[in-house]
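Before surveying the methods themselves, we first show a specimen of the format, giving the amino acid sequence and backbone structure tokens:

:::
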Amino acid sequence: MKYLFDNIQTVNEHLRSKENVILLTDFDGTLTPIRKHPDLAALSEEIRQTLIKFSQDKAIFLGIITGRSLKQIKKLVNIRDVLYVANHGIELEGPDIRSTCPEAKKARSTLWHIYMKLFKSLRHIEGIYVEDKGLSVSLHYRAVEKRGDVNEVSRTLHAITKPFLERNMILLSEGKMVYEIRPPVKWNKATAIQWLLTDYFPLKFNEDVLIMYLGDDKADIEVFDSLQGKGLTIFVGNPANMSATEYHHVAGNDNYRSPFTPNTSVADYYVHSPDEVKTFLEHLYEQKHEVHNGCPQ
């Protein structure tokens, strides 16, 4: 994995080699810094204006791929004519598409039950935040400062979710200081993007297209793997912190994803922060605008 700005000429050659761009990007930690509380996240006006330009450019198709709920991400980004892939692919909305995974809806009562049990069991811990996202539940512990409390959060979570995992009623995964409880469907960021590439994007673009994906978390690594040889992928953060999620047996089943197994599969390039993402997105727009005007540099 190479530092993007040390290899910008190579990236420029990729951009010039294709007429169209499918730009897919994560939100938290990619377009905006990770905050202590998810409600504090906000898109900078500079990035918003760049994204608006993308949404108005017929040669660039923009998609936001996130673990947030559809309602949340639409409010945070607030741009029309953009594809929103929310709840790790369970919810999709954009030009000519609106879809929610039917199987995921069946898990709603189970997720609500788990949400209430987590809320009641952990509400005494300072800094904990249990988030009901409709078709998934997030347990955020970034603001929990006491090590003993962090351990209690983990023990409580696994005690509550164990019977549901044993019966294959949920999936449990872990991101940056957050646990994700999701419906037991084989539908995530990577599978959603593969479906879009096969059944959605061809309606908008021909084969002369460069696929780009930016992300910072463990769920994004699955996307990097799935796009190997198919597009240009960019990791946001310190590459030394990059690790893959793999399935491990917990309580006799395969439904828990541990984030601690390293993997040699990585993105093509990396940038250090959302600020550098902003710089790159501005560069991307300038490059494509120059190409469309017949003046590549």
Summary: The longest strand covers residues 253-261. Residues 243-264 have pLDDT under 50 and may be disordered.
